[in-house]
Automatic annotation (TrEMBL), chain A:
Compartments in which it is found: Cell membrane
Domain ABC transmembrane type-1 stretches: 80-296
Membrane-traversing stretches: 25-44, 85-106, 118-138, 165-190, 211-236, 275-296
Family: Belongs to the binding-protein-dependent transport system permease family.
PANTHER family: ABC TRANSPORTER PERMEASE PROTEIN (PTHR30193), INNER MEMBRANE ABC TRANSPORTER PERMEASE PROTEIN YCJO (PTHR30193:SF37)
Domain of life where this protein originates: Bacteria
Name assigned to this protein: Carbohydrate ABC transporter membrane protein 1, CUT1 family
From TrEMBL, chain B:
Keywords attached to this entry: Periplasm, Signal
Gene3D superfamilies named in the record: Periplasmic binding protein-like II
Compartments reported by the entry: Periplasm
PANTHER family per UniProt: ARABINOSE-BINDING PROTEIN-RELATED (PTHR43649), BLR3389 PROTEIN (PTHR43649:SF14)
InterPro entries for this protein: Bact_solute-bd_prot1, SBP
Main location: periplasm
Organism: Roseibium denhamense
One matching Pfam family: SBP_bac_1
UniProt superkingdom: Bacteria
Record protein name field: Carbohydrate ABC transporter substrate-binding protein, CUT1 family
Signal sequence interval, chain numbering: 1-24
SUPFAM superfamilies the UniProt entry points to: Periplasmic binding protein-like II
UniProt similarity note: Belongs to the bacterial solute-binding protein 1 family.
Length: 305, 420
């Protein structure tokens, strides 16, 4: 009897001994496989493709770093890069705006749920609709913006037709839903704020800005972190609004890297897969810098605990 | 009427089939057709044409897929390589070159050798030819020109201009009356390409224009500068509507409908929306773009839409039969009449609808375009060059002072693009 059970144990022992370590990997396996195949592999594929000149149809021709050299001389690339930076900087305005709307809505009045959902509404509707609404708003001849400006005596402006204003005009349109998104993140964050700490702060004489800065905001740190991440990512993939509102124009002034990549590689007039891949690589490196920063700061925080 | 059409179509099909040595009824299997005619009227026309073709060949199983016209332009690359239909729509001239060079379109020179097609379609043969072979058949084309508000012209005592001087004098009077001479929407760039086509063909002639678009002439040449100087005369007068860079061509229509602008340089497809917006044929008229340089012959833009057989098609025999059917005179006549496509038939033996714009356009193209017939800026130039150039044209229309920088940029692009 004892012998039999020992034999049984020997038979199953490897699985039994390693079960604890193996099970998570087994569960992770499908995810890892898909991630490798659909995310990691295409990254290397893009790197590789950026060394070729290829129209997507015929034979690909190896050209080394020629596509990157082209990028270096390409004015349109610098315009796109500059616009990406403007997007990154100005889009972050959604975070404080979202915070203040959340603080404003974080009260108990009759019908507050309705107000909250109305403020959240722009995030629910499609970016395409947001783009269209703002295009009509900015319309130089029939738009509401110029009607308002005209009523206070300011001459009409063509926001989407002026190469200096167009990017800012689109970012303002993008801020509308993005602010709503940050607001909802902060509203949930505010639910988790510890009332005892507020009480303690109040006893110590903190109120107004000092209360907000030293007591509330530190406790909203997780919400701020998420809001920061989604806003940065949102700024870097600001493709749909540009496509709807200006199609990259006027004369390419509102392009960002992702839109430029689409234009040269995949649009109606685009047949330069290698060049598009080179732009994608640059965009990837920018994103990588941000992601690395996030991972590093998260790691530091975990270690500090 | 319909049955008559069917019988005549059947007769043609049998005639064509007897030449190719098979009987029409022997067609069988599947015929997959991909169309980009997604607008309601063209879609209905195409579906009817295909239904008639199906009725002629009951054993054939015809499957039609209609794809959005804009989406089609990017999808074609995928489906030609991966999942090719038997027949696909596309455009003539340089626009089909990438697919011809990649070996994705079937050589249909054999169809063009058949007498009906050789004679009937002779006028479009050049636009379908690359490397001495034909790669598809046209099914419709349309004229470009100036569509104008006749009532405004009458009110101001203007007549259709024949020369550049008359044109500018007219325009000055229109501006003095507080209106704009031309509406245009350059958000999607190609409308500016139409203006450049005409200004350059009128200033330097058809041959130079083609040299420029095929990379054999410089954008910084004196000829091109003269074209832009002519254009600038209009821009400096304030001939075009303000803020055109924000509008699509459709969004520019209301300016003309409301009478804020007197004319529109456009393709014939602009007539339908203008009529829908309430302009009657008494208010709306057409004239050929006036001569600028009296020493060059008049040449016109007349973009041609086409059918092709992908090289990877499964049922090429049936596909060829369909191409024969589409270009036959009777099918061409009804397909392009005012109730259907409302454009010009490509077959010389078919008749043009009694619509005043079609009649005028057909006459212009057949008798008053000795210099040649161009396809369109973005169909004659390679796609990449067209994109960069049209962006430059838009910039020029908004900021004419940037011309030198624009032309330098275009020349640099030219050296890169035509090099390979």
């Amino acid at each position: 009897m004892a012998q039999a059970s020992r034999a049984e144990r020997r038979q199953t022992s490897w699985w039994h001994q390693n079960q604890q370590q193996l099970t998570p990997w087994l569960f992770l396996a499908p995810g890892i496989l898909f991630f490798l195949f659909y995310v990691i592999f295409p990254i290397f594929q893009s790197f590789n493709l950026s060394l070729y000149e290829w129209d997507g149809l015929g034979e690909a021709e190896f050209v080394g770093l020629y596509n990157y050299e082209e990028l270096y001389w390409d004015d349109a690339f610098y315009t796109s890069l500059k616009n990406n930076v403007i997007w990154l900087a100005l889009y972050l305005f959604a975070i404080p705006a979202g915070l203040f709307i959340a603080l404003f809505l974080n009260q108990t009045v009759v019908g507050i749920r309705l107000y909250k959902s109305l403020f959240f509404f722009p995030f629910v509707i499609s970016q395409v609709v947001v783009g269209l609404v703002f295009t009509w708003f900015y319309d130089p001849t029939f738009g509401l913006l110029n009607a308002i400006l005209g009523s206070v005596g300011i001459p009409p402006v063509n926001v989407l037709g002026d190469e200096n204003w167009v990017t800012i005009g689109i970012i303002v349109a993008g801020l509308w839903p993005q602010t709503a998104y940050c607001m909802i993140l902060y509203l949930t964050g505010l639910n988790a704020v510890d009332p005892e700490q507020i009480e303690a702060g109040r006893l110590d004489g903190a109120k107004g800005w000092r209360m907000l800065w030293y007591i509330i905001i530190p406790q909203l740190r997780p919400a701020t972190f998420i809001a920061f991440v989604v806003t940065i990512i949102g700024a870097l993939r600001s493709f749909d609004l540009i496509s709807i509102m200006t199609n990259g124009g006027p004369f390419g002034a509102s392009r960002v890297l992702s839109f430029y990549m689409f234009e040269v590689a995949l649009s109606e007039y685009g047949f330069r897969m290698g060049y598009g891949a080179a732009i994608a690589v640059v965009l990837f490196l920018i994103m990588l810098a941000f992601i690395a920063y996030f991972l590093w700061s998260m790691y530091k925080e975990e270690k500090a605990r | 009427m319909r049955s008559m059409l069917k019988t005549s179509a059947a007769a043609i099909a049998i005639l064509a089939a007897s030449i190719s040595g098979a009987t029409a009824d022997s067609l069988s299997g599947d015929l997959k057709i991909f169309l980009d005619t997604s607008n309601p009227a063209p879609r209905a026309t195409m579906e009817k044409a295909i239904a008639d073709f199906q009725a002629l060949h009951p054993d054939l199983n015809v499957e039609t897929t209609v794809i959005d016209r804009e989406a089609y332009k990017t999808q074609i690359r995928n489906f030609l390589t991966a999942n090719a239909p038997d027949v696909a729509t596309w455009y003539a001239a340089n626009r089909m070159r990438p697919y011809v060079e990649a070996g994705l379109f079937e050589d249909v020179s054999d169809l063009w050798a058949e007498p009906e097609i050789a004679e009937g379609l002779a006028s479009t043969k050049g636009a379908m030819t690359i490397d001495g072979k034909q790669w598809g058949v046209p099914y419709t084309y349309y004229q470009w020109g100036v569509y104008y508000r006749k009532d405004i012209f009458d009110e101001l005592g203007l007549s259709e201009p024949k020369t550049w001087e008359e044109e500018k004098a007219n325009c000055q009077k229109i501006i003095d009356a507080g209106k704009k001479c031309y509406t245009i929407g350059t958000k999607f760039l190609w409308t500016a390409g139409g203006w450049f086509d005409y200004l350059n063909m009128r200033t330097n002639g058809f041959d130079f224009h083609m040299d420029l678009l095929t990379g054999n002439a410089s954008w910084q040449s004196d000829e091109v500068r003269q074209t832009f100087a002519n254009w600038r005369e209009l821009i400096d007068m304030g001939a075009f509507i303000d803020n055109h860079q924000t509008y699509s061509w459709q969004e520019a229509l209301p300016f003309m409908v409301q009478g804020d602008a007197a004319a529109y340089l456009m393709g014939n497809f602009a007539v339908a929306p203008l009529r829908d917006a309430g302009l009657t044929d008494d208010q709306l008229d057409f004239y050929q773009f006036p001569a600028i340089n009296p020493d060059v012959e008049m040449a016109e833009d007349a973009p041609t839409d086409t059918f092709h057989i992908p090289a990877n098609a499964q049922n090429k025999e049936a596909a060829r039969e369909f191409l024969r059917y589409v270009v036959s005179p009777d099918v061409q006549t009804w397909m392009n009449n005012g109730e259907n496509l409302g454009q010009l038939p490509v077959n010389a033996n078919s008749s043009v609808d009694n619509d005043k714009f079609l009649v005028e356009g057909f006459e212009m193209l057949s008798t008053n375009s000795p210099g040649g017939v161009a396809q369109f800026f973005d169909r004659d130039a390679p796609a990449e060059m067209a994109k960069i150039a049209m962006e430059g044209l838009q910039e020029f229309m908004v900021k004419p002072d940037n011309l030198d920088r624009i032309l330098q940029r275009l020349d640099r692009a030219r050296e890169r693009i035509y090099d390979n």
